[in-house]
Design brief:
The protein is α/β, with parallel strands linked by helices. It has four domains: 73 residues, GMP Synthetase, Chain A, domain 3 (2-Layer Sandwich); 69 residues, K homology (KH) domain (GMP Synthetase, Chain A, domain 3), CATH 3.30.300; 314 residues, Ribonuclease Z/Hydroxyacylglutathione hydrolase-like (Metallo-beta-lactamase, Chain A), CATH 3.60.15; 183 residues, Rossmann fold. The chain contains 22 helices and 28 strands. Strands 12-11-10-9-8-7-28 form a seven-stranded mixed beta sheet. Strands 13-14-15-16-17-26-27 form a seven-stranded mixed beta sheet, with helices on one face. The protein has a six-stranded parallel beta sheet with strand order 20-19-21-18-22-25, sandwiched between helices. The structure holds zinc ion (ZN) (2 copies).
Length: 667
């Protein structure tokens, strides 16, 4: 059978795919073939066949152009206790494995083992994997035991470890929808802005092809966390029952906080994310509910909806193409913004149209950049891109270079070391928190600054633990440090993680100097407020801003010069005089600066025909558009791109340049 004959979706595809699978993997004693989300899962009774025929499985994936995973039939898997015993007997003497670090995934038929030396445990050519599969029917995955552990994540994961059966049922429903027959076919490509257009916050973009509808991000405005901070889910084009897929670019509140609400409205489809985004977003959503409750705002949703969303999460690694609807394929690529953050590449209709949604991204040239970087820069090479949705947070002005920002911050630390004041740095739990910890701890290690205690409060610790679980996703120097030198740059000799009220009191009452990193970054809530209230009146103290502040937030108002603010104390409003020094250090941003955005366009391959600007205040987007218009030749475009700055609720219809494809989309 030639490859062209197998269609990419629909009943016919399924029938042909199953026939092909039986032909190629017959020797594995197949018991069933299932379409679990975008993956085709083949359950077999002869586990040895899987390892002996990995080449055949790869071949099959190529023929079908889908992800094919082969799993053992649950009936041939040994009981858990017996499997743990079997594995423990095989652990070499110089490798440490705790029996409680052996976990099972019934859905995937995997046994996961955490070890201090994963390579040593696996043995030559991953011999152990073969042995465990043959001996127990479980597929062995070995992970490095992270130097820090996220206790909160472990406990919510346990709480949510959604019954395997329910998750499996959800995946099969999702598979049914992805591989359905086309109902009307791809008729057009429309982009509808539901949030995050001409503003920063509540990111949500609907992509509509006539056949299917995909939502990119579901965020809330960080400055208004109530109903008014939501995207326009009331728009007539948006109906949860018509939605094929939700794709989340990264775990920041302005991209993910509204996700559980979709489940409250009745959405039951897939949520595509990278594995670190899955973990971090679970922390963020749990924290979001907790904070709303504690601050008396009342929450828009509960853990019930978060749990529902987790049942339908489909984790996808970078650079893997997956089907999300019969006419839409998704690829996540590194965005360099936070751990697991991604740019979203959407392919519509077999070869008709390609959209790249950068979401929040950090682009820089490794060769010329001299900053301390935790993450590698965003990708700039693609197969095809016709329309680009580009963020423009820093589209208007160029902050100072990263290097200068770093030295500014370090000199503030020297200053408090001599005055014995305290330095309060509000940060988001994800991204800047880890950036600053890395910077300060590496400076301490090379004795570039005096030893000062660093108190870290809020979700930062938990998220940092996750950064240490995915060292392979960090920038090369950091990765090498962690993997080969066993160093943990997030945990320095003076780092103190604040995990209870008494530690917080210690940080507040200690005679300085001290550095305090606390959430939230825009001072809209969280422990940073407690510190601020206690530190504001002392002129020896310093408040340093190192992140973007949305208009209207306490952080923005202070940065713009307000020195008398209202805060809540024991449920009552009171006036607070701010005498502490306030410094804004620009240049640390996890977003591309103006020049980096232009550089990204210059190096981006291939060049898009449409450039749609979002995620920025109007003045920033206008200024960026102007620069692109003036310098498209320098940016190596062959013809001037069409630059569009939509408002929320506006919809755009997009056409390919190619006339034949254009005809195909002229509904
Ligand atoms: Zn972000
Ligand atoms: Zn954002």
């Amino acid at each position: 059978m030639s490859n062209q004959e197998i269609p990419e979706y629909g009943e016919e595809f399924r029938k042909r795919a199953i026939a092909e699978i039986y032909k190629v993997l017959g020797g594995a004693e197949i018991s069933t073939v299932e379409f679990e989300g975008p993956e085709i899962a083949v359950y077999v009774k002869n586990p040895k066949f899987i390892l002996e025929n990995e080449e055949k499985i790869r071949e099959l994936a190529k023929i079908l152009r889908k992800r094919v995973v082969v799993r053992t039939d649950p009936r041939v898997r040994k009981p858990r206790e017996e499997t743990i015993e079997y594995i423990m007997k095989l652990v070499p003497e110089d490798v440490i494995v705790n029996p409680e670090d052996i976990q099972f995934d019934e859905v995937l038929g995997e046994v996961r083992v955490l070890a201090d030396k994963p390579g040593k445990l696996l043995g030559k050519g991953a011999a152990l994997r073969y042995q465990v599969l043959a001996g127990t029917g479980w597929r062995l995955e070995v992970y490095r035991k992270p130097p820090m552990a996220s206790k909160i994540l472990e406990s919510i994961m346990r709480h949510l470890t959604v019954a395997s059966a329910e998750r499996k049922k959800a995946l099969m429903e999702i598979g049914d929808r992805i591989y359905r027959d086309l109902v009307i076919g791809t008729k057009y490509v429309r982009i509808i802005g539901l949030g995050g257009f001409s503003e920063v916050g509540r990111a949500a973009i609907l992509i509509d092809t006539g056949e299917s509808r995909v939502l990119l991000d579901a965020g809330m405005s960080p400055s208004t966390m109530g109903q008014e901070g939501l995207p326009s889910f009331f728009a007539p084009e948006f109906r949860v029952e018509d939605l094929d897929a939700v794709i989340i670019s990264h775990s920041h509140i302005d991209h993910v906080a509204a996700l559980p609400l979709l489940f409250k409205y009745g959405y039951r489809g897939p949520v595509f994310v990278t594995p670190p985004t899955r973990d971090i977003m679970l922390l963020m959503l749990t924290d979001f509910i907790e904070l709303s409750r504690r601050e008396g705002r009342g929450s828009l949703y509960t853990m019930k909806e978060v749990a529902l969303a987790m049942t339908r999460v489909v984790p996808v690694n970078y650079n893997v193409v997956v089907d999300v609807a019969p006419d839409v394929k998704l690829t996540f690529v590194n965005a360099g913004h936070t751990l697991g953050s991604s740019m979203v590449h959407i392919h519509v209709g077999q070869g008709l149209f390609n959209i790249l949604y950068t979401s929040d991204m950090k682009y820089y040239r490794i060769k010329t950049d001299r900053g301390t970087r935790l993450l590698p820069p965003a990708n700039d090479e693609f197969h095809r891109v016709e329309a680009l949705i580009l963020e423009g947070t820093y589209g208007a002005k160029e902050p100072q270079p990263r290097e200068k920002a770093e030295s500014d911050l370090l000199s503030l630390i020297e200053k408090i070391a001599s005055t014995k004041g305290k330095l309060l740095i509000p940060v988001m739990a994800v991204g800047r928190g880890q950036d600053i910890l890395y910077l300060v701890n590496t400076a301490l290690a090379r004795k570039a600054i005096p030893e000062v205690p660093i108190y870290v409060d809020g979700m930062i610790y938990e998220v940092t633990a996750l950064y240490s679980e995915y060292p392979e996703l960090l920038a090369k120097p950091v990765r090498d440090l962690m993997l080969y030198q066993g160093d943990n740059p997030f945990l320095g000799p003076t780092t103190i993680y604040v995990n209870d009220e008494s530690k917080r009191q210690e940080a507040i009452e200690s005679q300085g100097p001290a550095i305090i990193l606390a959430t939230s970054g825009m001072m809209t809530g969280g422990p940073v407020i407690e510190y601020f209230k206690n530190m504001a009146e002392d002129p020896e103290n310093i408040l340093a801003f190192v992140t973007y502040q949305a208009p209207g937030t306490l952080a923005r108002r202070l940065a713009e010069g307000e020195r008398e603010v209202e805060v809540y104390e024991d449920g009552r409003q009171k006036k607070l005089k701010v005498n502490m020094e306030i410094v804004s250090i620009e240049g640390f941003t996890g977003h591309s600066t103006r020049s980096e955005l232009l550089q990204f366009l210059r190096y981006l391959k291939p060049k898009p025909r449409n450039v749609i600007l979002n995620h920025g205040e109007p003045s920033a987007l206008l200024s960026l558009a102007q620069s692109i218009k003036e310098s498209w030749q320098k940016l190596l475009f062959e013809t001037p791109p069409e630059i569009i700055i939509p408002e929320n609720l506006e919809s755009l219809r997009l056409y390919p340049r190619n006339t034949k494809m254009r005809l195909a989309l002229s509904y």
